[in-house]
Write a structure and sequence with these properties.
The complex is a heterodimer of chains A (576) and B (568).
Chain A: H1 8-24, H2 30-49, H3 56-59, H4 64-85, H5 88-119, H6 127-133, H7 137-141, H8 143-146, H9 156-163, H10 166-178, H11 183-201, H12 206-233, H13 235-249, H14 251-266, H15 268-292, H16 310-339, E1 346-350, E2 353-357, H17 359-370, E3 376-378, H18 384-391, E4 394-395, H19 405-415, H20 418-427, E5 432-436, H21 451-461, E6 471-472, E7 475-476, H22 484-488, H23 490-496, H24 500-503, E8 507-508, E9 513-514, E10 525-530, E11 536-541, H25 552-558, H26 561-571
Parallel strand pairs in A: 3-4, 3-5
Antiparallel strand pairs in A: 1-2, 5-11, 6-7, 8-9, 10-11
Helix pairs in contact in A: 1-4, 1-11, 2-4, 10-12, 10-15, 11-12, 12-15, 12-16, 13-14, 17-18, 19-20, 19-21, 20-26
Chain B: E1 15-23, H1 24-28, E2 30-39, E3 47-49, E4 51-54, E5 63-74, E6 80-88, E7 93-94, E8 98-99, E9 106-112, E10 121-129, E11 135-138, E12 144-147, E13 150-159, E14 166-172, E15 178-190, E16 194-205, E17 209-210, H2 216-221, E18 234-239, E19 243-249, E20 252-253, E21 257-261, E22 265-270, E23 281-291, H3 292-295, E24 296-299, E25 302-308, E26 317-326, E27 332-337, E28 343-349, E29 358-368, E30 375-381, H4 389-410, H5 420-462, H6 465-495, H7 503-532, H8 537-567
Parallel strand pairs in B: 8-17, 15-26
Antiparallel strand pairs in B: 1-5, 2-3, 2-6, 4-5, 7-9, 9-14, 10-13, 11-14, 12-13, 15-16, 16-23, 18-22, 19-20, 19-23, 21-22, 24-25, 25-30, 26-29, 27-30, 28-29
Helix pairs in contact in B: 5-6, 5-7, 6-7, 7-8
Classes of the chains: A alpha+beta (576), B alpha+beta (568).
């Protein structure tokens, strides 16, 4: 998992938490030791083999919990071992001795660790983890994490959309896990609680929530079916069974039994939960006794009570089946509409049928076939992986955000005036600049609407980009009220180059107003391709000689191109 | 695409061959040459003459000669009408070589106004049909006329052999210069009833290169004025019953295509992802299936595929065409007959479930033009039984898998028959079997208990003490019998070393059950006694109430013990 996703830190913290819980609640067993100790050792070794993790696997605080629990586990194992060797009295003496020494040692180690951790500014936690622990952290300090829409907290509808019926089944599942809390069910509860919290912080961690929710609602469903079918199956024999014993004594007791069943009938729902738990508890406890192999089984009187009237249980089964069926329909619909619709091909339905906006692929295909193989393309990082995969060209920034200096560089270039941007791009050996523009067809998630993040991320690394310069009354505006810096920056120019000529006014359909600066020329860039709906515009950097003036002209003409590049980069590098 | 009609006459002696000469520069780009001969003055049926390259002695090396062999030698003084059709590629040079989006494309045509002939020519004219539009310039000689879009040179009389009189025409030509750098056509025959054709195109606009900006604004607002040299779409004429047509490239389906079909043809209009300007290129793949019976026939014990060679695209020049005919696995004696020379070799292609691989016949030909779109035949031998090989392989594979599963389930895979764990397992199985038997006995006991209960119940209703006693007796007998059965089983469990887990439980169970039996019998006896003594119901209740509770508790315990055992 370490290879695929940074979310592995969730797992390597969840498992120690569970182990710790087991130890604290006195559920330590050799199985726990065997399961956990090799996991930590092997897992850390393997994780360290992944290049991006490397020594972070032992250095950062995300991994600290697992080591701490590893140590605790060993101490506990030792204590249990000694307990087995010594007599109780000796053990107590030894315990006090070890505790004093051990505490002193622990304190020393903790103090050293605390000092080490405190010495780093983020307390050893990476920004991502901090933004999980403190949901407001990212928006304050790391714009690159806050800029991603999937890092936003989810809304209630999105929860319902994602898990639908399961949301109602999960509480039942928790209850059935809880009553006889075993090692396994405590893990499930822990998993669910933590993943609910994390999914509440970021939409994309819904991925972590999904398996927990599925397992728990599966437990709830299976228990419900178990109870219902069982009560249908045993309806007859048990009524026969109860009659003689009751009839033996008085007819009164049997009538009370019927009363209880009728009350059950009244609130099936509640009863179902109860029966589930009872059933669960009996099973669980039996299993435990089996495992431990100690005391004889305790008789459980409730067992006979969890019988529902057959009509009610039949209704319940039908209801559950219907619920499951509806959920399947919902899942298929969600998979078709929400999860598989590619965001790269946009469609719109109008009265004359489906209209396809395939502009992204149009531009990527153009780049793929009509540029040199080693040309480099600069775009905002959202399009990095797409460009790499579909256009087969090197990009300057892509969706990998482990290091954001280069993203900030591109953000700076995009928010600089044309000349400065040209210098930055030229020093990065960029040939083409790609911008996404939704103004013509009203596509809202285009680069102008993402521009605030370019400014923030760029400004975070390069202080000469100041957000205030782009803001008018706290808003990013590109209409007549926009600030001169805004209307002069590269992003504005590349997006709106010759846009006003389409309708004469320059009405931006994505933002629903007329743009501020309508007629301008590009001096350092030239348009090389624009897609059918203008969604993607590709510009090429004009060659160097255009910016050389006056005296330099003669000198530079004779010198070679590489030296020119070096000169250009070294002379005025805005971010060094 | 220049069309040269030539009419020649003959000399003094009977000749059987006519030489046609072209400069090497042109001959290099010669895509097709065809000659039709008609003897006599009257225009009759013309016949195609076979043509071959020859190298006669004593001619300049800069010329390439083709010789058309006549069907019968031409007698002295007779006249032969010879029509020669030649098709050249890359004959028109764009000039200027780079144009902007707004410019229209100008091309240069260079040739000789005199027909380059190894024979003396009496009368000759040259007419050049231009595509219309502006004519920038042309070489002017005495008798040159430009009428509409036709340029005429001549007539020239008594031109000596090998005379050359260069002309240059510079004119506007906005026809799409679609050039396929490479086209790979894969024709895959499946005798299940389908011929699948996949064509991989690599298309480039071969005209004047685009210079400077491409402005979508200009292209959209004035498409004919701005961007006249570009082309947006290509039309492919597919056979009538083509089905499952797709049009895609490396990054997925391309949604801009239209399809019309009627009984004679299927017309596919495809639009590349972007309009092609000079020098721009793109790649895409189209594929379609054809019904087998329309294209594969059998004759003389052989089957043959009869299908067109070139691309179904209209107006396209293919610089390198590779046709791969993938025959079904097991085809033999492969033979091809093509209407023109091609490079041929064979490959093997592996597809799903292939063992020997499918034989692939590859034909390669440079500079293919629509005139080459002729039928060619591939002959091969194929046995229909071979069709069943792959399904049979699957069936046997699955069959063997299941057989293996069955065998695995039924064999004892343990390595050592004496190892303690193996022995323990055997013993454990034994214990389990006996425990099951014991369970059965206890269930019988419980059933007897139930019988006793019901007899009591009946007693309270009917007051028939006799039947009740009889029931008790019967139960007693049954209990004894069951106890007898139980004894050896219990002994065997006890003796087994694997029973240490179960034994305490079992022991417990036996004791509890014994107690329960006693209690039940005692209660039964008291109840029956009191009924016989005609005591009041209340008194009976009081007497047995303590017993009642114990019995209930015992029964509960016994049942839970039994359930525990059954879970093992």
């Amino acid at each position: 998992m370490v290879c695929s996703w940074g979310g592995y830190t969730f797992i390597i913290n969840l498992i120690p938490m569970h182990v710790l819980l087991c130890i604290v609640t006195g559920r330590y067993s050799s199985r726990l030791y065997v399961a956990y100790a090799p996991l930590v050792v092997l897992g850390t070794l393997l994780a360290a083999l992944v290049p991006v993790v490397g020594f972070n696997a032992v250095l950062t605080s995300e991994h600290f919990a697992s080591f701490l629990v590893f140590i605790i586990l060993h101490v506990v194992a030792l204590v249990y071992y000694i307990k087995g060797l010594l007599t109780p009295r000796l053990f107590k003496v030894a315990m006090t001795f070890v505790l004093t020494v051990g505490l002193a040692l622990c304190l020393a180690v903790v103090a050293i660790l605390a000092a080490l951790v405190a010495s780093s500014p983020t307390k050893g936690w990476s920004g991502r983890s901090l933004s999980l622990l403190d949901p407001t952290y990212a928006s304050k300090y790391i714009p690159i994490i806050a800029s991603v829409s999937e890092h936003q907290p989810p809304t209630w509808p999105s929860y319902f959309m994602a898990i639908n019926v399961l949301a109602f089944l999960v509480p039942a599942g928790i209850i059935s896990c809880f009553l006889p809390l075993s090692d396994a069910s405590s893990f499930l509860v822990l998993y669910l609680v933590t993943s609910v919290y994390f999914s509440g912080v970021m939409v994309r961690l819904m991925l972590v929530l999904a398996p927990a929710v599925c397992i728990l609602s599966g437990i709830a469903l299976s228990e419900a079916f178990n109870v219902l079918t069982r009560s249908m199956k045993f309806q007859r024999p048990i009524s026969d069974d109860t009659l003689p014993t009751a009839g033996d004594s008085t007819p009164g007791s049997s009538s009370t039994a019927t009363i209880t069943t009728s009350t059950k009938n009244a609130n099936i729902k509640k009863e179902k939960m109860g029966t589930i738990s009872k059933e669960r508890s009996s099973k669980k406890s039996r299993k435990e006794t089996e495992l431990v192999g100690s005391s004889p089984v305790r008789p459980e009187k409730e067992e006979k009570l969890c019988v529902l009237p057959s009509e009610a249980s039949a209704m319940g089964i039908l209801f559950l089946i219907m619920l499951c069926g509806l959920y399947v329909i919902h899942c298929v619909w969600a998979a078709a509409e929400a999860y598989s619709a590619p965001s790269i091909v946009l469609t719109s339905r109008s009265h004359d049928g489906l209209h396809v906006y395939d502009d992204f692929r149009e531009s990527y295909a153009w780049l793929r076939h009509n540029t040199e193989v080693d040309d480099k393309v600069a775009s905002w990082w959202d399009y990095g992986y797409q460009t790499t995969a579909m256009a087969n060209r090197t990009v300057i920034v892509d969706n990998n955000t482990w290091n954001n200096t280069h993203i900030a560089t591109v953000g700076t270039a995009m928010s600089s005036p044309e000349k400065g941007a040209w210098e930055i791009f030229n020093s990065l050996d960029v040939k083409y600049v790609l911008v996404v523009f939704g103004g013509l067809i009203g596509y809202p998630s285009d680069d102008i609407n993402k521009f605030l993040w370019m400014v923030r991320i760029g400004g975070g690394e390069f202080p000469h980009i100041k957000e205030q310069d782009y803001l008018r009354d706290g808003n990013y505006r590109v209409d007549a009220q926009g600030t001169p810096t805004m209307l002069n920056c590269l992003m504005y120019k590349l997006c709106y180059y010759r846009f006003a000529e389409t309708d004469g006014k320059g009405f931006d359909r994505a933002r629903r107003y007329e743009i501020g600066r309508k007629h301008f020329k590009l001096t350092h860039f030239e348009e090389v391709f624009t897609t059918q709906h203008w969604m993607v515009r590709i510009y090429k950097l004009k060659p160097q000689k255009n910016r050389v003036r006056g005296k330099l002209k003669l000198k530079l003409k004779s010198s070679s191109k590489t030296s020119l590049m070096r000169k250009g980069a070294g002379k005025k590098n805005p971010w060094q | 695409d220049i069309f040269i009609p030539v009419v020649e006459n003959a000399g003094s002696e009977p000749v059987s061959k006519v030489l046609l000469a072209f400069p090497n520069i042109q001959a290099k780009n010669l895509a097709a040459i065809r000659a039709f001969g008609t003897e006599g003055k009257v225009k009759g049926l013309s016949s195609v003459l076979p043509i071959e390259v020859v190298e006669p002695s004593g001619v300049p090396p800069e010329l390439t000669f083709f010789s058309a062999s006549l069907h019968k030698p031409l007698q002295k003084g007779k006249i032969l009408h010879l029509d020669v059709l030649t098709v050249f590629t890359h004959f028109l040079q764009p000039f200027p070589e780079e144009i902007t989006q707004a410019d229209s494309q100008l091309v240069v045509f260079q040739d000789s106004s005199h027909y380059l002939s190894p024979y003396p020519v009496k009368v000759q004219t040259l007419s050049i049909r231009l595509p219309g539009g502006r004519v920038e310039s042309y070489t002017k000689y005495g008798n040159t006329k430009l009428v509409d879009s036709e340029l005429k040179y001549g007539p020239y009389e008594d031109v000596p052999p090998f005379s050359y009189n260069p002309i240059i025409v510079h004119f506007e030509n906005n026809n799409p210069f679609a050039v396929a750098k490479e086209l790979i056509r894969e024709i895959e025959i499946s005798h299940w009833g389908n011929v699948q054709i996949t064509e991989h195109y690599n298309i480039v606009h071969g005209g004047a290169r685009l210079k400077g900006e491409f402005s979508r604004l200009d292209y959209q607002s004035r498409p004919y004025a701005r961007g006249v040299s570009s082309f947006r779409h290509l039309i492919a004429r597919l056979p009538a019953r083509a089905h499952s047509i797709y049009y895609r490239d490396e990054i997925g389906n391309i949604s801009t295509s239209h399809l019309w079909s009627d009984s004679k043809k299927t017309q596919l209009e495809i639009e590349p992802r972007f309009p092609l300007f000079g020098g721009w290129q793109t790649t895409f793949t189209i594929g379609y299936g054809l019904p087998l019976q329309d294209f594969v026939f059998s004759a003389d014990g052989k089957r043959f595929l009869n299908i067109t060679f070139g691309s179904p695209m209209e107006e396209i020049l293919i610089e390198k065409l590779i046709v791969k005919v993938v025959l079904p696995e097991g085809s033999k004696d492969i033979d091809v007959s093509a209407p023109f020379p091609t490079n041929q070799w064979q490959e093997v292609k592996y597809s799903h479930l292939d063992i020997a691989g499918r034989p692939v016949l590859v034909l390669e030909k440079p500079d293919v033009i629509p005139e080459h779109n002729l039928h060619f035949q591939v002959y091969y031998k194929f046995n229909n039984i071979s069709l069943l090989i792959e399904p049979m392989m699957l069936i046997t594979g699955f069959f063997l898998l299941f057989v293996a599963c069955i065998a695995y389930m039924h064999t004892d895979m343990s390595i050592s028959k004496n190892s303690p764990s193996y022995l323990a397992k055997l013993q454990w199985d034994e214990v389990q079997a006996t425990v099951q038997q014991i369970q059965g006995i206890f269930h019988q006991c419980l059933a007897v208990h139930d019988k006793l209960e019901t007899s009591l119940h009946d007693l309270s209703r009917t007051g028939d003490a006799k039947s009740c006693k009889a029931a008790r007796k019967a139960a007693d007998a049954q209990f004894k019998e069951l106890a007898k059965e139980l004894k050896p089983l219990l002994l065997s469990v006890q003796s087994s070393p694997q029973s240490y887990q179960i034994w305490p439980k079992l022991d417990d169970l036996v004791a509890k059950e014994r107690e329960l039996q006693d209690k039940l019998m005692a209660r039964h006896a008291t109840v029956v006694d009191s009924v016989e003594k005609k005591q009041r119901g209340q008194d009976i209740e009081n007497r047995i109430s303590s017993q009642q509770q114990k019995i209930a508790a015992l029964r509960q315990e016994v049942e839970s013990l039994l359930e525990y055992l059954s879970e093992i």
